[in-house]
Write a structure and sequence with these properties.
single chain; alpha/beta; Rossmann fold; five-stranded antiparallel beta sheet; binds adenosine-5'-triphosphate; binds magnesium ion
């Protein structure tokens, strides 16, 4: 599948436009604050029905407008057949989000996720490395929701159960009331932990390879840092038991602090530089460039995961990502993108010279005050 058409209606400053996409993608050139990131945000909205910049839906509605709508038409490539039309709309007043696939509203939003098979690279990605554990958990949750059936439901139900449990802890309910939530929490939590652990085990080597290729030598690695010890634990059943044990150990403490202190909601991904056998935490010791490289490697792993779990070449959205790399790194990133079987590429840049991907073959579009000119 590839994106063949995009129709925008009052998404941020983008007005109303109907655009035909070239098969290889496009390079969108424009000055600051003209709408380049907005444009990619609109496209990626069709993948997750959320802003990749963490904005609330209300903020995405054009100023002075009541609703936005984005429609993408995906056209089959050679091996596949048919087209798919995904529409997402949001109404400011009723706070209503409406999503449809080929005209039908899915029963749950989760059923419509991931139709584009897209991945976004943006300068914000450094937050994945420099920011708190929450950023990395969100990364895992998005990647796993898009690649593993059932993951999203498990993580959402886990959050609901956790919330209920925390409410009873906070209001000082007796242990028996708090513990009534435990079996659900443990079961859902174990399946979330298992999925995260498997994914990170599967892709840690790819991460190291990507990192080494972009950095031109230095290596780094990612490891799962679960909030409960999983040493010697193999099965999901075993994880559930370890989780239950951890809950009983922390029972006293959680009563004092009034919240559940152990579980996948406290997980993290550890990022380390291979410093000749004595690993260094990238968050604490990494340079700006090293952190950007690690963030980029995480996105490349995400793209690989899309390719492998959905058997599709990902649509790659690059938001002005080369501006902050030295030229050696940028060259290597571009080489990597070309060898990595990416599908379409939509990239934004303030200037032409940042556009060299796909051997200079991307058609150039320009954007000014939200209006795209082909
Ligand atoms: P840069 O090169 O600096 O990253 P950009 O081209 O990526 O710039 P965007 O972030 O896409 O810029 O767009 C920013 C513009 O969009 C700003 O002028 C901002 O005021 C406008 N904008 C943001 N939200 C809305 C909205 N809901 N309605 C209308 N305009 C908006
Ligand atoms: Mg921008």
């Amino acid at each position: 599948m590839r994106l063949s058409r995009l129709t925008l209606h009052h998404f941020r400053n983008l007005g109303s436009q109907d655009l035909e996409f070239p098969p290889e993608g496009v390079a969108l050139i424009g000055d600051n604050a003209q709408g380049k990131s907005n444009f990619l945000e609109a496209i990626y909205y069709l993948e997750t029905f959320r802003s990749f910049r963490g904005a609330r839906d209300e903020q995405l509605v054009g100023f002075d407008n009541e609703l936005f709508r984005v429609t993408g038409t995906m056209q089959a490539t050679d091996e596949e057949c048919g087209t798919e039309v995904v529409t997402a709309a949001f109404e400011r007043n009723g706070k209503r989000k409406k999503v449809s696939v080929n005209g039908d509203e899915p029963e749950r939003l989760g059923d419509a996720l991931g139709r584009l098979a897209a991945v976004v690279f943006s300068p914000r990605d450094t937050q994945l490395v420099s920011g708190g554990p929450k950023e990395r958990r969100r990364f895992l949750d998005v990647v796993l929701s898009l690649s593993q059936p059932g993951y999203l439901a498990a993580v959402q139900d886990y959050r609901k159960t956790l919330h209920q449990r925390n409410v009873s802890l906070k209001s000082g309910q007796p242990p028996s009331v708090v513990m009534a939530w435990d079996s659900g929490l443990v079961k859902l939590g174990a399946s979330v932990i298992q999925a995260r652990r498997e994914w990170l085990t599967l892709y840690c080597e790819s991460f190291s390879n990507y990192y080494a290729r972009v950095s031109g030598g230095v290596t780094a690695r990612i490891t799962y840092a679960p909030s409960l010890s999983l040493t010697g634990v193999a099965s999901e059943q075993g994880i559930a038991e370890a989780f239950r044990d951890a809950l009983s150990v922390t029972a006293e403490r959680e009563r004092r602090v009034g919240t559940t202190v152990v579980g996948p909601h406290r997980d993290d991904i550890q990022l380390q530089l291979d410093n000749r056998g004595s690993p260094l935490d990238l968050r604490q010791y990494g340079s700006g460039g090293q952190r950007r490289t690690a963030a980029l490697a995480l996105r490349l792993v995400e793209a690989k995961s899309i390719r492998e779990s959905r058997c599709r070449r990902p649509l790659v959205l690059l938001d002005d990502v080369f501006a902050e790399f030295d030229s050696g790194r940028s060259e290597r990133v571009l080489e990597l993108m070309e060898t990595e079987e990416t599908g379409q590429v939509v990239l934004t840049a303030p200037r032409e010279e940042h556009v060299r991907i796909h051997s200079d073959s991307l058609p150039r579009w320009s954007i000014k005050a939200g209006v795209v000119t082909i």
